[in-house]
Amino acid sequence: MINKLVIVGVGLIGGSLAMALRQAGAVREVVGVGRSRENLETARQLGIIDRIETGLEAAAHEADVIVLAVPVAAMLPTIKELAPHLSPGTIVTDVGSTKRDVIGYAQQYLPNHISRFIPGHPIAGAEKSGAAAAFTDLFQGRNVVVTPLPENDAEAVTRISVMWQTCGAIVNTMPALRHDEIFAAVSHLPHLLSFALVEDIAFRANAKELFSYAAGGFRDFTRIAGSHPEMWRDICLANRDVLIREVDTYQAQLDRLRGMLEQGDGKSLEEVFGHARTARAEWLAGKQDS
User: Fold this and answer.
1) What is the pLDDT of residues 215-230, one digit of tens each?
2) Domain limits at 216?
């Protein structure tokens, strides 16, 4: 049971977490903090939070768990503001898509509370944002990665893991660098490519004609280009060292395919397409089995 849960940033992730815990009977009071009063009022009207606090000092008082569900670029100012107001027993966790940057902020500004700062990342999301987009089953059967620090208190790590499991999530643990490497490849790079393709088409002289003939394949490949630009700008920059390596690796693959096209090497193209098709089918089958 979490007596007092503070959600800093009551959007899709923070709001859905509060709803899932409330439905499970695992929280007594949920306090919402955020930059948009309108969004917080919506959250209160929807029953996601019990009350609104305008500042972190009042919100943090005697909190059991504080969840930082703000964009990656807002983590640093949020942690700095929160630092003087933490009670000794309060556990702080985050939901950021990058981990090394957030951990660095916590190590710098929460040195005396680092044992109870538990970095996390729920692998769930949608193009819509804000409290109105939240729903109870968002984390059902979804992965949540926790990247514990050597300084972390084991009980605090367990409590955060149990919090996510209570929401129906599957909790995995790994080092922060490994997390950032994995998600650079399977999340950050795909978003970068999707934005880039739409940008390329949109600024061509015949863009209107091209879009008029775009169908299911283009729609499916570019779906994630509908994601929040500010949020993805910050994620890409926060993980840029690893992401640049992934871009270079992908560029090498494109160069390889370009060579096959120049040489008219249909056999090699078909082999690449076949390998990719099989790998994707195995991935989807594995997800269904799990």
Assistant:
1) 999 999 999 999 889 8
2) 178-289
